[in-house]
Structures are given as structure tokens and as C-alpha cells.
Amino acid sequence: MKLTDTTEFCELLNITKDQFIRSYQEARNYSRYKASTFLSQVSAKTYASFLEKEHKFPGFFAQPRTLRKYARETAAHVLGYVQEVDQNMLRKNKYYEMHDYIGASGIEKYYEEYLRGEKGRKVYMVDVHNKIIGSFEEGQYDEEAKVGKNLQISIDTDLQVYGEKLMDGFKGSIIAIEPKTGEILSFVSSPTFKPGYLVGRERGKHFAELQQDTLDPLYNRGVLAYQYPPGSTFKVINALIGLEEDVVKSYTKYSCNMGYHRGRIKIGCHYHKSPLNFVQAIQNSCNAYFYYVFKNIMEHKDYPDIRASFSNWRNHVLSFGLGQELGIDLPIEEAGLVADTSYYDHYYGKTGWRAVTIRSLAIGQGELGVTPLQLANMACVMANRGYYIPPHFIKEIEGLENIPEKYNKPVFSTIDSVHFPLVIAGMDSAVNGGSGSTARIARLRDVVVCGKTGTAQNPHGEDHSIFIAFAPKDDPQIAISVYVENGGFGSTWAAPIASLMIEKYLIGEIQRRWVENRILKANLLNLNEEEN
Hints:
Blueprint: H1 6-13, H2 17-30, H3 44-53, H4 76-79, E1 82-84, H5 87-92, E2 101-103, H6 106-110, H7 112-115, E3 124-126, E4 132-135, E5 151-153, H8 157-166, E6 172-178, E7 183-190, H9 203-212, H10 221-224, H11 235-244, E8 259-262, E9 265-268, H12 278-284, H13 287-298, H14 306-318, E10 337-338, H15 341-348, E11 368-369, H16 372-383, E12 387-388, E13 394-397, E14 411-412, H17 420-432, E15 450-456, E16 464-471, E17 478-484, H18 494-506, H19 513-521, H20 525-531
Antiparallel strand pairs: 1-2, 3-4, 5-13, 6-7, 6-17, 8-9, 10-11, 12-14, 15-16, 16-17
């Protein structure tokens, strides 16, 4: 190939002379006869202009290629993005060739083999200069290309867009799931970005900008932020374990004098009436009460020592999907943390620790780490009265009768279903009860919401604001978790955000405009950025 007017060529394609020389040399090094990509992802306007003048540039030709286009710029962390394969990918998978596209994150990567289709093949006769002179054996070895399969996912687009709008001023996550099916209705990781931002010739530039952003918009907090403490949302699990192990009853009462105090041991609590029974303790989120419950579990008469009772407690906790990957259809997911006996043995020796040593676990602190997805899944267990379906996005894969089997099988907790109504009564009272209810901000006029607030201690700044919930109480259609970094009390930001999402999904419109306006006007991002 030979150009008589390199300047015109560069101006037409909007590239520099250096870019031209570099790409030209790469093409020459690849082959003097075989076609290769000189410039990819030109705009439709540039493509049309080039076609008009293609005759002036012998050896060059334009070829259309499919790129991703998004009808609505949302759910970037769910959809993911594609990229050109690199040398490392080529070594790992011989299916691909240079300049092929491959899913790099999200659903694009997880379902790559379905989305990419199958390559076609044409076998030609060529001369000594690699010039095609005809089809080989009349095309009997040719194969038609097959387009990729269409996927239908569970995201409710309107709810997703609304969730991203609500979280625009916050760092954190919203995960909403249909509890009966495990289908994810909304998956928000904030800050986020528009998926179309990583399409086209400017992709590399835009990707670098996102990587350098101190707010980490590429980071998927929904499944990767595994060191989040669950805070007081975890009390519902300890409550259920207490009932299962028969160390607490509905009528059991404990006193709280601004917390638990015994010698040097102190567990602080907020002011509320005292003593409280089981449901009231959940309603008021009493730290002292749940330390007593946890202490009774650890000192259970049926277990010979703390290590045995702790292992039993831990097995119950794991059955809620904590401390393990849930198997969501995304390429990366963190398992979270539920420490085992070896952790405490290492620090205290096998006989050197007691219930009081690990007292932080009673209120969802200490050696516990969860992802927002695990919190939403925990809300599903509550909604279903004892089980969850592994959370997933896929609803249908074109041409296949069923989605993967694991997304149809319930996973049961170790807690008998007879114990759930009592804890749910406490979650109901937390939202819809009277004085002392910690989540009254989440109350809706026409829907009974059951929820639990959490305020997780954060050594790096303000506490984190957390809320889990499901609704309606007697026929749950949505389970949700909201985690707002540095948001303070669970009732301050997480609970109202979750309630607005429930209101949007179940009622279809927002009736409490004052709640919505307060959330939309808030901005904690500068605070978060300064602390990080």
C-alpha cells in the first residue's frame, strides 16, 4: 500500500502523523499481504467520510463492526464492559485473535461464551503473495458465523435508575432482590459511571480517568466491599440463633442502663426504656439485651467449652450466606469474613478466650465482614422465613430451556422456620411501632415494611449507616440492603433510602416527597473523599 497524501488521510481519520506511522509500521510487521486492523472504532460520521474517499487510499478499506449501544445509561457495574483482547488473553484462549472483543467485567464477562456467538470460517485458495484466487473446494469447509444469544436479566430499569439517583451524593450500595426467586431487581454501587463511557475510541482515555478518580467509580462495592461490619442488622441473626438454641424466649427480659456494665467491661447503648422483652429489644436495638443473648449462646450447657459453642454459633451464621461466596453471576465476588476458632486460638490460646472476649460479635462488630449483597440476601432469608435462592441477574438465555440449576434451588438456614415470626415481629415494630422504634423513617402508609437499622463503627471516620428490610410483611416481594459509608446512624440515610426504593417498586410513585428531597439534596462525597 502506498499513500500519495498522508496529511489528508490523517485529517480524514482525525489522527496524528505519529499515530499513522506507528499503526502503519505495525501493519507492515504483521504482514505485507494479509489485512490487519489499522484504526478501530471510528465514528459513524468519519466512516461515511472515509467511504467517499476510499478510492484515494489503495490498500485501505473500511469494515463495519458491531459496538455496544445502551438505550439507558445505567447499571454499569452489572453490565460491565468489553475490551480488545491482549497478548495475555491470547495465550490463555486460542479462540480469540488480535482485535477481537471480549467481556472484561460484569455480565459481559460472566456470560461471554453466550454473548460472543460463534465465529464463521471461509477457506480460500491464495497465490504465493497471499492474494485470494478463489474458494477452496467450492466452500465445503466454510462455516457460517452464529450471532450471540440474547440474555434477559432481572434488573428493573426504572428502579435501578432511581436507586442511582438516590445514591448520587453517597458512597455505598443498594441491593434489592425478589426474595421468592433470588432475582436481583436493583444493584447500585456508588459512585458509578455511564456504561457508554467505555465504548468507542476514547475508551482508553476514559478508563484511565475512572481509574484515577479518588472516589473509585470502577470499584463494585456491592460484591467487593467485604470488610463492611454488619452492625446492628446482625442482631436478627443472633436473635434467631438464641431462639434455636433455646437460650431466650419471647418473654425474656433484660435491663439496660445505657448499655451493659460489668467491672471494666462496658458495651454502650442509647437511651430507651428498660427492661425490654425480646420483640422490644429488636424494636429498640438494645446492645445490652443482645450481649446477654450472645453470652447465653456461648455459655450453652450442651457444649463442653467456648470453642464448641462458638463453632455451633458460627455454623448457624454461615447458613445465612455470610462468610462465603453466594455464587452471583458476576466474575468476581468476595466471601466476607466470619472468623473461626483458629483465629481466636492464635491470639488468646485455646483456653484463653470467653464470651466477653468476643463480645463485639453480639452487635455485629468485631471479626465480621459482609458485602452489601450478603446483607440483602440475609433480608431474603428473613422474608422467606428460613431460606434463600442464590441471588442472580439472569432470567432467560435465548435457546435454553432453563437458567443454571443453582439459581432455582433454595438454600435453607439452620434455624427452624417456627422462630422467624417472632423476630419479624421485632422488625415490624422497628419500623411501625411506637416510641423507641429505630426505623420509623422507613414507615409507609399502605405497605407494612419490616426492617432493621445498623450503625457500624468505622475506625477511619464517621460510622456507616445500614438498613435491611423486606416488604410487604405477609407477602414479601422485595428484600433490600442499603449501606452508606460514613453516614452515621442507620436511620439517618440508609433507612430512608431503602424505604424510597420500596415505595417506588411496590407503589409506583413517591408519596413522601419530603423524604426524597432530603436524600436528593444530600452530598457526603466530599466528606468521604477527605477521610480517604
